[in-house]
Amino acid sequence: MNDQQLLRYSRHILLDDIGIEGQEKLLAAHALVIGAGGLGSPVALYLASAGVGRITLVDHDTVDLTNLQRQILHTTARVGQPKAASGKETLAQINPDVEVHTVFDRADASTLSSLIEGATVVLDCTDNFQTRHAINQACVNARVPLVSGAAIRMDGQVAVFDSRSGKTPCYACLFPPDQQFEEVQCSTMGVFAPLVGIIGTVQAAEALKLIMGMGESLASRLLLLDARTMEWTSIRTTRGSDCPVCADAQH
Asked: Which element (helix H / strand E) includes 211?
């Protein structure tokens, strides 16, 4: 690290849990952030400010006026611009040393394997089950830890799915791909603006911990938030012996 970096990250370096060694791990890391909306905004902001060396932002959508109530990566002046490009501009203003790559495309099975290649951690900030399952499958295949977040109305959830050990559950263990779930989206159901900030910030914290090997991750736990009462619930989760995604994965 140079003198500017030592100064910028000094409050991290002062922490016994991080220090210079932990900060150097962040600088050498590559985070793949899928979705540059409500959850992806705080995720990307904190990963960049914390010094994650390389961030890839994936989003196929453009900035809309209705996004600005909660998607803090974007501004009124950027309505109509691709979200990934808008996000890159914001991150450059916060930390110009971070290398930000943008992908203006949908994250699907055909693109995810190449996107995940070389990633240290993947953050799922999307809003539909099909994409979530595709991301989970790709992360299991590549043995890359996945930090998943979701938020709708006044309810949020965060989980970590770390396939590296072969002992913790994947996303499909909790939400089987053949099970029918009601798709709920902000455009029809609404979402409390600070909720995505809370959930996204927890996602960022879990990703930073995974990169540095610090503390205990949320693997094998599902963290739920009821923002009406601001109560958190932690549920223990187990790996499915018959999971179609991870049960037969080779580790």
From this structure: helix 193-212
